[in-house]
Amino acid sequence: MSGSKRPEWTVSAVVEATVDETWQALIHSFPGLSKKAGQVSPGRGVQHITATPDGETVEWSFEVDADQHVIGLQGSWWYRGEHAVVPHQRGSAITYSVYNVAPGGTRWLVGVTERGSETRLKGEFQQLISDVGNRLGCRVTYSAG
Predict the structure, then answer these.
(1) Cα dihedral sign, 110-113-115-121
(2) Among candidate residues 69, 80, 86, 82, the one with its CA nearest the CA of residue 17
(3) Residue 53 and residue 32: Cα distance in Å, rounded?
(4) 22: Cβ–Cβ under 8 A, 6 or more apart, which residues?
(5) Residues 6+ apart with CB under 8 A from 50
(6) CB 3 within 8 A of CB 94
């Protein structure tokens, strides 16, 4: 989905539930997207959905592929995040990858202007997977790398 060759960083979590259960819990737990979960369905390819999460003033633009179990979110001038649910021996795994999609000559500015964003985004992912685990009533194990 991203079109970028390599993420800046990736984190993941093992969810002790099936891929389909985890996917549904992720959609219903994702800020903003949870309000439009009923619009997400397989067999439609990549769906473009806009939503405004609680506490935000601007709409977020999501690309959701229910067949591949991937949520893409692009925002600001540099950020693209992708959450993917894949099979795992203990159930499923959610992988969160962050890409720098800033235009060529400005890519280096991300390290200067977005200092601290990695820590903040990883914290938001930990909250999201905690919500998924609570929704499913199952164990979730975070991995920072």
Answers:
(1) negative
(2) 86
(3) 4
(4) 15, 85, 91, 92, 94, 132, 136
(5) 59, 60, 61, 62
(6) no
Strand partners, 13: 94, 142
Task: List, in order of start, the domains of the chain with CATH numbers.
Answer: 9-143 (3.30.530.20)
Among positive and negative, which fits the CA dihedral 67, 117, 123, 5? positive
Radius of gyration of the chain (CA): 15
Structure tokens given for 12: 């993941």
pTM value? 0.86
pLDDT in tens, 124-138: 999 999 999 999 999
d(CA 56, CA 68): 28
CA neighbours closer than 13 Å in the CB half-sphere of residue 59: 8
Greater confidence, 59 or 70?
A: 70
Q: Report how far residue 140's alpha carbon sits from residue 105's, in angstroms, rounded to the nearest whole number.
A: 40
